[in-house]
Amino acid sequence: MIEAVIEHIPLKQQIFQELEAVCSKECILSTNTSTIDIDVCAAKMKQPNRIVGPTPPPPPPHLSRTDVDGCFFFALFFNAP
To answer: Residue 27: which residues within 8 A CB-CB, separation 6 or more?
Structure first.
C-alpha cells in the first residue's frame, strides 16, 4: 500500500494509523514523501517499523531542492565507476 497525499504530517500519521488497523500484517506500507522523515510519518503507529519509503535527506537551508537534486544527479553521472 503506497500513501501519496500532500506533505502534511498529521494527515500522513492518521492515514498510517488507519492503514495499520485495516491492512494485514503481511501488507507493506510505503510512503512517497519527499520532505518528511519516515519515522515522523510512523510516529503514531503501534508498529512503526512497517513503513518503508525512499526519503532523501532534506536540502541544506541555503539550497533549493532543485539545486540539490541537480548536483546529486550530476555527481552520479560523472562519478559512476
So the answer is: 1, 19
Chain segment 38-54, per-residue pLDDT in tens? 899 999 999 999 998 87
Q: Which residues pair with 2 in a beta bridge?
A: 30
Residue 36: phi and psi, rounded to 5, are: -110, 135
- 11 forms bridges with which residues in the sheet? none
Q: Where are the domains of the chain?
A: 2-56
Which ranges of the chain does DSSP label H, i.e. alpha helix? 9-22, 38-41, 65-78
Answer yes or no: is pLDDT of 68 > 60.
Answer: no
Question: In 10 A of CB 30, how many CB atoms?
Answer: 16
Measured distance CA(9)–CA(26) in Å, rounded: 25
Beta bridge partners of 31: 3
